[in-house]
Amino acid sequence: MLVEGVGRRRAAAILQYLNSHELKSMEQLLEVEGIGEDTLKAIKKYFYLF
Fold first, then answer.
1. What are the pLDDT digits (tens) for 22-42?
2. Distance separating alpha carbons of residues 12 and 2, to the nearest angstrom
3. Which residue among 4, 22, 29, 31 is least enclosed by CB atoms within 10 Å?
């Protein structure tokens, strides 16, 4: 909940998604309900894949 634009509900939705999908690109998060382009842009400031 420390990420701009991500509250409890979105965080829970992201975690649920990650429990059932292998994240290969950050753009996959657009499949999560409540995550749009603006939220994805905010999330990208805090996380990256390697």
1. 999 999 999 999 999 999 998
2. 13
3. 22
